[in-house]
Design a protein that fits this description.
- 2 copies of one chain form a homodimer.
- The first copy, chain A, is of the alpha/beta class and about 425 residues long.
- In chain A, about 40% of the residues lie in helices and about 15% in strands.
- Chain A has 14 helices and 11 strands.
- In chain A, strands 1-3-2-4-6-5-10-11-9-7-8 form an 11-stranded mixed beta sheet, with helices on both faces.
- Chain A is globular, with a radius of gyration of 20 Å.
- Chains A and B meet through helix 5, helix 10 and helix 12 of A and helix 5, helix 10 and helix 12 of B.
Chain lengths: ~425, ~425
């Protein structure tokens, strides 16, 4: 290897290829990741729990033949600490579950292990994937929030500690930290993946998510999570014919830098010959934001029940959310549930010939400070409708801080969305 | 008490009232339940795990003041062994999970405990809530299957061992055993209740269910599971204005005794002045049956992942289901998923002025033998569409064996369905 120190910056697929080509070994990549973690974890704080290098390598070497012939070849993956792992604590960002050892692996974890991925550790989550931050800092600027709730997954991936990590999204918990940290974030259509062993927060909103540094790695891991026969097979990238542009003000408060980013992205698409159409509706998405808030409050109050026994160990925002959910009129909840259920179909019927929607992944760059994780409104509408989304990095503000834009697809047509996103990723990189 | 031995046959609400009126104590009811279990469990085999009388009474007496002022006053509830309990093993009917001790209570279990219910034990489930039977026999005829997968819950309730038990339904796992054993079975709209801590089988189909001996007890427990402020409040029973009659042959194979039962139930409605309309579509429900089968196969194969590590410990039918699910073309799955997602709305739009649908809860009475749990097709269409259903006992064949009929409602309008069901339960009882 000419530059072994850069191995931690390879994506999953890139690393697998390098190993196949004899340019490095899996152990080289693993060591490069641990080198990076040792150098950066004291500042970044992405990990709630992690294997030591020695334990990891023992696990790899004791079963090397299996790993060598497996799709993921023993490479490391991070798992958000809201997802159960049988060999590591799963604490959900809460003192209530300090040291909690799950009995079983979540299905997604078991699938990764079966494909030869090794769980390097559990990444920091906000308290029960809601608002109260953990210790993680934004690797792009340590004075800023990484976003939440998949804070550690986004930071670990953006900081090149691991090539890929699992997250989950109920409001903005994958897309926002991906946007703030500068990683790729993908949230599957609602119901797309098994959530067995992932701690539910709101059953009508929860989705599994992935964080990586490239769309192709999202596609690879998606294939593994769907138990596809040949997860390494890859479809062609697809240039969209027509894209619906959703400016941030069609959802809610937007920073000027993000207005600029969406305009840049739109200009880039147009320059590539993609037809653009502007989303002009001022009411639809703010309504979906409200529906999302209603559904989330009502359902969280009926999921975090065990924890209600120890309210003194819940943060104030979470106590407030539960109280408001318990006080909510059921009719209001049902109204929101019904509106959200048909929202996606209605939206896509209005724009039948559009291939994807381009929208801000967050209101702007990551805010300064670590007391809050930033505003979630840019994700709420799509999440309420259960649509697949992917956030792409590449654009930055004047100070060079990441500005994420997201593409939104049709429910359960995640494959088409990812094929477009891979094309757009290339266009952003060469812009 | 004039007849303390009958206390175990009281419903939850009846027992609470009797306690309030000073006719008996909670301990009397608890003892009556244990007397019944001691007498009948060797034949019925409803329990996978249960507290001893002593341990139960210790639990009650050590916190008597709490129980006395609680909604459920310390009365016993059974929990299907697919739902996690922190103080009892949860084995999912599989040797793979022998002795498995969950870390946390499921949300539904925590809600019952918070309302003053005591978990008497875990009721027998088929293997992972699929087809392979447990040890339970049908209390109405020990030579017959109790149905599955909530076998133990249906049998324990029908045999008056406990007034209420939790179940779950992915295909026909609540409605069929309720129909076969002669209990009331209720399956909530999809997404209605938190499934946190319930083991998922197929995320687009799984619903929580309840088994009891009266509709009013279903309503009471539903209110507790929804964390309603006053779970003991009760709405009026509602006589339907118009009911859609779905004969069994509109779904699939039907025994003559069930044809007769539906005709009897329809005649009863008509006699009470309820307008009837016949469901004449020959294709819609069989298509929904097929969609259900596709969705279930595809998703089960992606939920039972941990278990795939030990295929030799899976039953042959389950291995076959997983294999077929893994081999299934994704396009077929998505077609079924989409058809099922709009099926309920389409159906209810066609019959906008109908208050409920009356349909068989099973093809006939419980089949003889214990190798299988009976055919699930009568539930598959409604389950695919995510509609709330309730199975009512009261009708019997010539030999006196239970024949269940079910009422189907609109998604998330479970309250209206239960109000109608309580009226119909009264009509059936006085017929």
């Amino acid at each position: 290897m000419n530059n072994p120190k850069a191995l931690n910056t390879l994506g999953l697929r890139q690393a697998l290829l390098a190993i196949d080509n004899g340019e490095c070994t899996a152990v080289d990549v693993i060591n490069a990741c641990f080198d990076r973690i040792e150098a950066r974890e004291p500042q970044v704080g992405a990990w709630q729990y992690s294997l030591s290098r020695e334990v990891y390598l023992d696990q790899y070497l004791s079963n090397e033949a299996f790993y060598q012939q497996s799709p993921l070849k023993g490479l490391p993956v991070g798992i958000k600490d809201i997802i159960d792992t049988a060999d590591m604590p799963t604490e959900m960002g809460s003192p209530i579950h300090k040291g909690r050892m799950p009995v079983d692996d979540a299905s997604c974890v078991a699938l990764i292990r079966a494909a030869g991925g090794i769980v390097l550790g559990k990444t920091v989550t906000t308290e029960f994937a809601y608002f109260k931050p953990g210790k993680t800092r934004n690797p792009a600027d340590l004075e800023r929030t990484p976003g939440g709730s998949s804070s550690g997954s986004a930071a670990a991936v953006a900081d090149a500690m691991v090539p890929l990590a699992l997250g989950s999204q109920t409001a903005a918990s994958v897309i926002r930290p991906a946007a703030y940290c500068g990683s790729v974030g993908y949230v599957g259509s609602r119901g797309e993946f098994s959530l067995r062993g992932g701690q539910p927060l709101a059953q009508s909103l929860d989705s599994l998510g992935l964080l990586s540094r490239s769309v192709e790695d999202i596609e690879l891991m998606r294939a593994i999570l769907l138990r596809q026969n040949d997860p390494l097979a890859q479809a062609d990238a697809v240039k969209p014919r027509k894209v619906l542009i959703c400016q941030g003000d069609k959802v809610g408060e937007t920073d000027p830098a993000m207005v600029e980013a969406i305009n840049q992205a739109a200009a880039l698409l147009e320059g590539q010959g993609v037809e653009l159409v502007q989303f002009e509706d001022e009411e639809f998405l703010p309504q979906m934001v409200q529906h999302h808030i209603q559904i989330m409050g009502y359902e969280v109050a009926r999921n975090l029940v065990v924890e209600s026994r120890q309210p003194e160990l819940l943060s104030e925002p979470l106590q407030d959310l539960i109280s408001s959910g318990l006080a909510m009129e059921r009719g209001l909840y049902l109204e929101s549930l019904n509106a959200a259920a048909v929202g996606g179909d209605n939206l896509w019927q209005r724009f039948g010939d559009v291939d994807a929607i381009l929208a801000p992944a967050a209101p702007g760059v990551a805010p300064l400070g670590h007391e809050k994780t930033g505003a979630p409104h840019m994700s709420r509408p799509w999440q309420a409708m259960g649509l697949p989304v992917i956030s792409l990095p590449g654009l930055v503000d004047e100070a060079g801080l990441p500005l994420g834009v997201q593409l939104v697809g049709r429910a359960h047509d995640d494959d088409s969305l990812l094929a477009l996103a891979r094309w757009f990723e290339g266009a952003l990189a060469s812009a």
